[in-house]
Amino acid sequence: MHLEKRVLGRGLAALIPDKQTADNMQILGSNIQQGVRHIPIEKIKANKYQPREDFNQEALDDLANSIREKGFIQPVLVRSKDNEYELIAGERRLRAAKKLGYKEIPAIIKEASDLDSLEISIIENIQREDLNPIDQAKAYKRLQEEFNMTQEKVADTIGKDRATIANILRLLNLPAKIQEYVSRGTISMGHARAILSLDKESEQIRLCTKVMKDDLSVRDTESYAKNISLQKPKSKKIDKDPNLNSLEQELREIFGTKVKILKSKKGGKIEIEFYSDTDLSRVITLLKSNR
């Protein structure tokens, strides 16, 4: 059963009935709260749709200490699958419980599709501000590629505006090394966006190195990027028909990727970019669905 978009946009709490949510937010002692079961940890499989790639070990230790002292403030969310359970949300809590050597963990069992599982995992992490920008971008990309979502659809599902989704997805255009720095928090998303204004990878890497070496602010990074761009020889700019700009924007929203309309004296062409075989299949599916 697919969960409604408006429910997912409200986050994890919206998936649990009001009475149950209130009960679950109480510290779970030896008694099982309404709608909550204690499930053997060994029967819970990892969520292949978990958007987070890195887990801070120090933060996990702090969480484990908190659980040891106060118990679980909120159960994990799982779904039944292949006579076991697959985790939907709460991987940090599950890992902390394993650190403590617990055999069971309080959980809510929810019926959910693969899409629901990915959406809920993303929403939970984002609402807790646990996902770094690169993990967010990769998660949004999975929604686009694996579930044929446009940027507009991703934005509606996650509860953010389309421009925010587009800006985060652009981070995946950075060289892998710079993405790693963003992921670790060595440079901020603001720095990354300034670096993205440069066209050449060599220029991006050089500016990123300077940001870290000289501890540049975002504003200083933007100034350096602007100066680098100004030093390039200027090509003659041809004003584009505003109607074409509007059409390009509309097509970008439909296909969830860059689209260019190029006119010539005898006609023209439309360029639709894709970034992987899966992305190409997604675009083709969208084209076929509009026949």
Query: Can you tell me the overall shape?
Result: flat
Oligomer: single chain
Q: What's the helix count? A: 14
What is the rounded distance between the termini? Answer: 28 Å
- Look at the structure and give the CATH class of the largest domain: Alpha Beta
Which sheet architecture does the biggest sheet show?
5 strands, mixed
What's the gyration radius in Å?
23 Å
SSE order in H/E notation?
HHEEHEEHEHHHHHHHHHEEH
CATH fold annotation of the largest domain = Conserved hypothetical protein from pyrococcus furiosus pfu- 392566-001, ParB domain
| Low-confidence regions | 1-34
Q: Quick one: CATH superfamily of the largest domain? A: Conserved hypothetical protein from pyrococcus furiosus pfu- 392566-001, ParB domain
Explain this structure to me?
With 291 residues, the chain is α/β, with parallel strands linked by helices. It folds into three domains: 5-130, Conserved hypothetical protein from pyrococcus furiosus pfu- 392566-001, ParB domain, CATH 3.90.1530; 136-230, Arc Repressor Mutant, subunit A (Orthogonal Bundle); 242-289, no CATH class. 52% of the residues lie in helices and 12% in strands. The protein is built from 14 helices and seven strands. The protein has a five-stranded mixed β-sheet with strand order 1-5-3-4-2. Strand 3 (76-81) and strand 4 (84-89) form a beta hairpin. The protein starts with a helix and ends with a helix.
